[in-house]
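Design request, tokens follow.
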């Protein structure tokens, strides 16, 4: 796996599932101390990125005002039946978001 998005309780998955030179995105605010084996992260040149929650009220207002064109962020769309193809499509360079539309069934 090239990119792994985790909450704090999934940090143990880094060394098990991430390819060398992959990226880990840690989401939410992490409270307390966490244990992470750094040796493999250094050897495999893993990039660690933090992503915390922001002001949801402002984000929702911006979406409501259509300040952000979220539709343009979607590179490909698939039905739920095409889920495996969607995961494959998400691996390609330049693909930003792949949408699996479960309502399309």
């Amino acid at each position: 796996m090239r990119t792994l998005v985790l909450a704090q309780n999934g940090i143990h998955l880094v060394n098990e599932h991430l390819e060398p030179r992959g990226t880990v995105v840690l989401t939410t605010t992490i409270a307390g101390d966490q244990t992470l084996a750094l040796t493999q992260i250094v050897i495999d040149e893993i990039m660690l990125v933090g992503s915390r929650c922001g002001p949801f009220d402002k984000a929702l207002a911006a979406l409501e005002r259509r300040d952000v064109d979220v539709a343009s962020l979607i590179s490909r769309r698939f039905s739920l039946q095409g889920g495996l193809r969607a995961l494959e499509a998400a691996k390609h360079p330049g693909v930003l978001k792949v949408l699996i539309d479960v309502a399309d069934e």
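Comment from the thread starter after seeing the answer: thanks! The longest strand covers residues 74-79.
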